[in-house]
Amino acid sequence: MSGHPAPSAAIPFPRLRPWLLAVPVLLLVAYLVLMDNGAVSQAGTFLHELMHDGRHLLGVPCH
Asked: How many C-alpha atoms does 51 have within 13 Å on its Cβ side?
């Protein structure tokens, strides 16, 4: 035992790329469903109802 910590393994960029693309999209979807309250989803009745039902599905109070 040398007393030095083991060097950390670098994660190759190609393995990170899908996550770097997915995280902003998932955050946008989470914002639209949880926090939008009609600011963006007023574009159409279908989108507004979809976000409204998504809030109820996740148990987030909206009214």
From this structure: 22
Angle between helices 13-34 and 45-58 (to 10 degrees): 100
Instruction: For the full predicted model, state whether its pTM sits above 0.85.
Output: no
> CA separation (Å) from 60 to 4, 21, 43, 46, 51?
48, 26, 22, 19, 11
pLDDT of 26 higher than 90: yes
DSSP-H helix ranges across 1-63:
13-34, 45-58
Write out the two tokens for 46.
């279908």
